[in-house]
Write a structure and sequence with these properties.
globular; Heat Shock Protein 90; two-stranded antiparallel sheet; 2 domains; Helix Hairpins; alpha+beta; 241 residues
Length: 241
């Protein structure tokens, strides 16, 4: 291949990337504005009905109105998660040394504030530091800890272990829970947008959280994977070069 042909191919790739970027910007704008406005209207008018006119509805009517409100709120959270997922790809990485022990402790403390009624033991080992964008890394770690808390909820004594091990001279951080686990054949689905192994009635969530974590880790040049067995818990591993 000549230098001219290579330059033409590079120019074409750059043009295609720029076109894709503009399409994503347009998509993000549509989600942020065109979808949110009617959704806010649905939510707002439904609340007015519930607060001012509920007495005019029979039990079945009130039940259906509750369905409308619940689904409007779920769609709102889904839109917000989609926008966050998009912005993760646009965020310029600003790497610095990160104290991983402090980061995990802060996130666990924050998330456990919503889990006070549960008995959850969280063990955090002294972790080696990482070099990463702390804003994005916090998003990823928060999603992984949230996942561990959520899927260990059915345990009378839930336990989460956070640590690090050396594999091929590389730090491999892990989050291990004793939750419900899953069959490993479904593992590839976990890091895809909207892919969930459980219904919303079983466990809440938009199906975007682990995709966010995957995007953050891979943007840093790292890897993320999981090991699990049904009823024996799940471990998520990730590296940060």
């Amino acid at each position: 291949m000549s230098q001219l042909d290579l330059s033409q191919q590079l120019a074409q790739c750059q043009a295609e990337l720029e076109a894709t970027r503009k399409e994503l910007q347009s998509f993000s704008y549509s989600i942020s504005h065109d979808l949110r406005a009617p959704l806010r209207a649905i939510d707002g008018f439904s609340r007015i009905l519930q607060e001012d006119y509920a007495q005019n509805l029979d039990a079945e009517g009130q039940k259906y109105l509750g369905f409308v409100l619940t689904n409007a709120q779920h769609l709102s959270r889904l839109i917000e998660d989609l926008l966050i997922f998009y912005r993760l790809g646009q965020h310029h990485l600003q790497k610095a040394d990160v104290d991983m022990t402090d980061l995990f402790r802060a996130i666990v403390t924050e998330l456990r504030a919503n889990e006070r009624s549960r008995s959850v033991t969280v063990e955090i080992a002294e972790l080696p530091p990482a070099h990463a964008d702390v804003v994005l890394l916090r998003q990823a770690v928060s999603q992984l800890v949230t996942n561990a808390l959520k899927f260990s909820r059915r345990r009378v004594e839930a336990k989460i272990e956070i640590g690090c091990q050396k594999i091929d001279k590389q730090n491999v951080y892990f989050i291990r829970d004793n939750g419900i686990g899953f069959e490993m054949q479904y593992a590839p689905k976990l890091f895809q947008v909207f892919q969930k192994l459980h219904t919303g009635d079983e466990f809440e969530g938009s199906g975007i959280g682990l995709a966010m974590a995957h995007r953050v880790i891979t943007r840093h040049g790292g890897k993320i994977w999981t090991e699990s067995k049904p009823s024996q818990g799940t471990t998520f591993f990730f590296t940060l070069p």
